Amino acid sequence: MELINFLIEHYFLSIPLLIVIILFFISNAKKGGQKISCQTLINLSNNDSALVVDLRDSESYNAGHITASINIPVKDLLRRSNELSSTEKSIVLVCEMGSSSPNAGETLIKEGMKDIKILKGGINEWRLNNLPLI
User: Fold this and answer.
1) 33-128: CATH superfamily
2) Vertex 133 angle, CA 41 and 103, to 5°
3) Number of Cβ atoms within 10 Å of the Cβ of 43
4) How is the chain split into domains, by residue range?
């Protein structure tokens, strides 16, 4: 209750703080590309309009991955980005939980790639939805 009273009494400080917090979350939400759901990824894959890039290490990838995805570990992304630059498809980045894909997306955007998408929740979300892995 004291915090609320403080914020009300010092509204001239509270409003800019609130604006900064909102802008931070908006900028973080857009970082690295558009976030998409598992269903959207399925639709893109069915239309053959997505290249799915699994950013996990090779061991995790071999333990189970999305059909037709390619494995480029995040540590090798910059070195192997030329493998992605020739595609006309959307590039969908998939990591374990959706946390490292935004940074990888930023790397690809800096390399000149445009249509970058990120699977929300990563492969973990895919599993939670009981979707198949190979």
Assistant:
1) Rhodanese-like domain (3.40.250.10)
2) 55
3) 13
4) 1-30, 33-128
- Token duo for residue 55: 């950013």
pLDDT of residue 28: 66
DSSP codes of every residue in 48-83: T-EEEEE-S-HHHHHH---TT-EE--GGGHHHHTHH
What is the value of pTM for the model shown?
A: 0.80
Residue 106 belongs to what H/E stretch? Answer: helix 101-110
Question: Which tens digit of pLDDT belongs to each residue from 18-59?
Answer: 888 888 777 666 678 899 999 999 999 999 999 999 999 999
* pLDDT confidence band for 99 (50 / 70 / 90): confident
Contact 131, 46 (CB under 8 A): no
List % helix, strand, coil for the chain (3-state, nearest 5). 55, 15, 35
Q: Which residues pair with 81 in a beta bridge?
A: none
d(CA 9, CA 57) in angstroms, rounded, equals 52
